[in-house]
UniProtKB/TrEMBL annotation:
Residues 1-25 are annotated as: Disordered. Belongs to the protein kinase superfamily. CMGC Ser/Thr protein kinase family. CDC2/CDKX subfamily. Gene3D superfamilies: Phosphorylase Kinase, domain 1 (3.30.200.20), Transferase(Phosphotransferase) domain 1 (1.10.510.10). It holds the Pfam family Pkinase. One of its GO terms (biological process) is G1/S transition of mitotic cell cycle. One of its GO terms (cellular component) is nucleus. This is cyclin-dependent kinase. It comes from Lineolata rhizophorae. Keywords: ATP-binding, Nucleotide-binding. Residues 34-331 form the Protein kinase domain. InterPro entries: CDK (IPR050108), Kinase-like_dom_sf (IPR011009), Prot_kinase_dom (IPR000719), Ser/Thr_kinase_AS (IPR008271).
């Protein structure tokens, strides 16, 4: 199974930066065996295309199509921790109801690696800002997210980029699938970094936990729990603003200021593990007092606000594990 999905050879052809567009179709590009591929969106090291493929039908019946997403990546251009080949290997092993399923992979000229997934029409970042997005839909999608995180953590996998746009939805109300494992970490999957020397340049701006901002290379799966708490806050609060603000330039100092201003400036009594961080104590910060969760999330249901408060904590060992979060009243009570 693994060999079949990862059967790709690397070409010595020059990388043109896009899929082979020398085979245009009447309705789009031909990428491998997938015709009618149209550009959907771009990532830092990839481009995603939407393509239609014929579905198998009984003899004599009308043919139909289904839609896939083609993630065209450029492994040779990637810098650690980005690695699409490792992403593909991991996804072969990660088979779970709320983890995006990998259909197949294949190579393209220029050393490109194409990962094929079911096409999902929207993501949680877009859906939660719809006027008709209800609390029940939010709960369904967040339950799927925490189920995926619990599954990953049971296998000692850290996603490292939990955010609403990486939660893909089959419809505006779910089900939801955790996607984009391009920087995921697993001790069993080389070339992941050593457990005590992980790369700290992971995560996306305002979803990054404070231990990364102070140089902790020994972080663990609890990094995902902080980010997941930020997602819960964003999705369930009526404003749908991010919980923390890293400024227009996404700077680490702006993010530190936003976290401290919201949760209060920590010291070694409230954040003992910080004493081990390489960059702790190099700067003196204003002594902010915590604002309290009712003030930070005034439009959030009480149970959702309590869930956030148990996930977004300085001391990483105090963050509520994903498996336990699924038993929280927010998910259990109707």
């Amino acid at each position: 199974m693994t060999d079949a999905l990862l059967d790709h050879g690397h070409s010595d052809a020059q990388d043109t930066g896009r899929p082979d567009d020398s085979l245009p179709d009447a309705d789009g590009l031909a990428i491998g065996k997938y015709a009618r591929a149209t550009h959907h969106k771009d990532g830092l090291f990839s481009s995603v295309y939407r393509a239609e493929v014929p579905a198998e039908a009984p003899a004599g019946s009308a043919g139909s199509t289904h839609v896939v997403a083609l993630k065209v990546t450029f492994p040779s251009a990637m810098t650690p921790p980005h690695d699409s080949e490792r992403e593909a290997r991991m996804l072969v092993k990660l088979r779970f109801s709320s983890v995006i399923p990998l259909i197949e992979t294949f190579s393209q000229p220029g050393g490109r690696l194409v990962l094929v997934f079911p096409f999902m029409p929207c993501d949680l970042a877009t859906a939660c800002r719809r006027r008709d997005f209800k609390h029940e839909a939010a709960k369904t999608c967040l339950r799927d997210l925490f189920s995926a995180i619990a599954y990953l953590h049971s296998l000692n996998v850290i996603h490292r980029d939990i955010k609403p746009s990486n939660v893909l939805l089959k419809s505006p109300t779910g089900p939801a699938y955790l996607a984009d494992f391009g920087i995921a970490w697993s001790q069993d999957e080389p070339p992941s970094e050593p457990a005590d020397a992980k790369i700290t340049d992971v995560g996306t701006t305002c979803y990054r936990p404070p231990e990364l901002l102070f140089g902790n290379t020994r972080y663990d799966h609890t990094l995902d729990l902080w980010a997941a708490g930020c997602v819960v806050a964003e999705v369930t609060d009526g404003s749908h603003d991010t919980l923390f603000d890293s400024g227009e330039l996404g700077s680490e100092l702006a993010l530190i200021h936003s976290i401290f201003d919201s949760l209060g400036t920590p010291d070694l009594q409230t954040w003992p593990e910080a004493a081990l961080f390489p960059d702790w104590g190099k700067m003196v910060f204003y002594d902010y007092q915590p604002k309290g969760w009712s003030k930070l999330l005034p439009n959030t249901p009480d149970t959702a606000r309590d869930l956030v408060s148990q996930l977004v904590r300085y001391q990483s060992s105090e963050r509520l594990p994903a498996e336990q979060a699924l038993q929280h009243p927010y998910f259990v009570e109707s």
